[in-house]
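Appendix C: a fully annotated inverse folding record. The material below is reproduced so that readers can follow the format used throughout the book. The structure is listed first as tokens, followed by the designed sequence.
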């Protein structure tokens, strides 16, 4: 079009959020279309959209019932997100029919088939704008957010700087399970240099877990029929770190199945 617009067709791979001086920041584990559960959870937290912020670790879509709401959700000014491997599959399946078949057939993307083209376009646009990583300035220090993991030998600043030029690094951010593998084997987890805390999702675990300076918060919100302990985790990181869990199997805030919060 002749105008100079650096980022118009190449969205930023990395975003920094300035400190939220007036409200709280919550990092949200893999939602997979469970928007009603999220709404109940935010209500339980007295979430105030005029001051509080919600930061998704990615995998907002697929498997759950309300994936088509993703574009509308990402348009809220209080919502931030990094992309997950499921968002990447949606984007890549437009040019890769084998991947499209895998995604729709085996990875929970069947909702896409029923979507009108105009709605698909809105979803693609909103998702294509998502960075691979973001960082949040907080009272507690710098908090990083990535869907899967950061290479174990790479300081955070190098990771975010190289994302734009290194496709292997972007794949790692979306798919890797190296640190969570250590956790599962009972091995020590290498910290990420340059961060107070890294928040990740991607691999479902029974309860949110901190290992070193890495917090794993995918607690399988979409898997209520498979795991009794399935829940949505909202990890508050500003002004202090507080874990909030909302069971997926029952409305939160009711009796013994209500939210479980503990300081960490
Ligand atoms: Mn994932």
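Designed amino acids, in order:
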């Amino acid at each position: 079009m002749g105008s100079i617009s650096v980022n118009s067709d190449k969205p930023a791979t990395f975003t920094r959020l300035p400190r939220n001086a007036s409200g709280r920041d919550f990092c949200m584990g893999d939602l997979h279309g469970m928007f009603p559960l999220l709404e109940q959870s935010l209500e339980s937290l007295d979430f105030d959209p005029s001051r509080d912020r919600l930061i998704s670790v990615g995998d907002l879509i697929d498997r759950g019932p309300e994936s088509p709401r993703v574009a509308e959700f990402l348009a809220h000014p209080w919502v931030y997100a990094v992309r997950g491997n499921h968002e990447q599959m949606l984007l890549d399946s437009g040019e890769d029919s084998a991947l499209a078949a895998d995604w729709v057939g085996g990875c929970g993307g069947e909702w896409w088939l029923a979507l009108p083209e105009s709605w698909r376009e809105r979803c693609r646009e909103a998702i294509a704008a998502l960075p691979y990583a973001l960082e949040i300035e907080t009272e507690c220090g710098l908090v990083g957010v990535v869907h899967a993991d950061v290479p174990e030998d790479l300081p955070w600043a190098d990771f975010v700087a190289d994302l734009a030029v290194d496709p292997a690094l972007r794949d790692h951010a979306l798919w890797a399970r190296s640190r969570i593998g250590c956790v599962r084997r009972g091995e020590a987890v290498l910290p990420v240099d340059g961060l107070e805390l890294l928040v990740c999702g991607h691999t479902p675990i029974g309860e949110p877990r901190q290992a070193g300076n890495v917090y794993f918060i995918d607690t399988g919100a979409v898997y209520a029929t498979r795991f009794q302990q399935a829940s949505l985790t909202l990890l508050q990181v500003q002004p202090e770190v507080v874990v909030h869990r909302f069971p997926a199997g029952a409305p939160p805030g009711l009796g013994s199945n209500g939210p479980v919060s503990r300081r960490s």
